[in-house]
Amino acid sequence: MTYAAGLVAILAGVWLLLSGYFDKPLLLGLGAVSVALVVFISLRMRIVDDEGLPVQLPAGLVRYLPWLVIEIVKANVDVALRIIRPDLPIRPRVIRVRAGQRTDVGRVIYANSITLTPGTVTIDTEGDHITIHALTEEAAAGVLSGEMDRRVTRVEGHG
């Protein structure tokens, strides 16, 4: 039921933004009826699932994104220092980690978060394992620590 309410809220918001009718009661009423009808029929036909429109993600992303931005900035500084100072070691390696996420959306967020962090690139995803190229041992250790994995799992609502 919560999922249906989330769908109704999202569709109603999109309808309001696209229609621009904020002051016509008849059109607002017809819009509300059409949104409710579309959600009812879609759920009844089972053409919408939790992964197709993950309404639970925004709350988790609000907590996750600031942490990710901080990690990206720290990794940027590290990679920039390694470029500027050639005496700092670069020891590339390929590692394989297990993704603890239960959904495809969660695994995509995890793999893309790894790739967004300078010094690491997601090479392949296969099942619940992700193959990663790390520029340094520290970058590999950061991924192997599992902190990002745990945080993305919490974004999914399972952690």
Put the structure in a nutshell.
With 159 residues, this protein is mainly alpha-helical. The chain is built from six helices and three strands.
Describe it.
The protein folds into 2 domains: 44 residues; 100 residues, no CATH class. The protein contains 6 helices and 3 strands. Strands 1-3-2 form a 3-stranded antiparallel sheet. The protein is elongated and about 70 Å long. The relative contact order is 0.13.
Secondary structure: elements and pairs:
Blueprint: H1 2-19, H2 25-45, H3 57-84, E1 93-98, H4 104-116, E2 120-126, E3 129-134, H5 137-144, H6 147-156
Antiparallel strand pairs: 1-3, 2-3
Helix pairs in contact: 1-2, 3-6, 4-6
List keywords for this structure.
mainly alpha, 62% helix, 6 helices, three-stranded antiparallel sheet, 159 residues, 2 domains
Tell me the strand order in the biggest sheet.
1-3-2
Structural class: mainly alpha
The coarse silhouette is elongated
Major sheet details: 3 strands, antiparallel
The number of helical elements comes to 6
Distance separating the two termini: 22 Å
Calculate Rg over CA atoms: 21 Å
Contiguous uncertain segments of 5+ residues: none
Number of E strands: 3
Helical amount among residues, as a percent range? 55-70%
What is the number of domains?
Answer: 2
Oligomer: single chain
| Strand content range | 5-15%
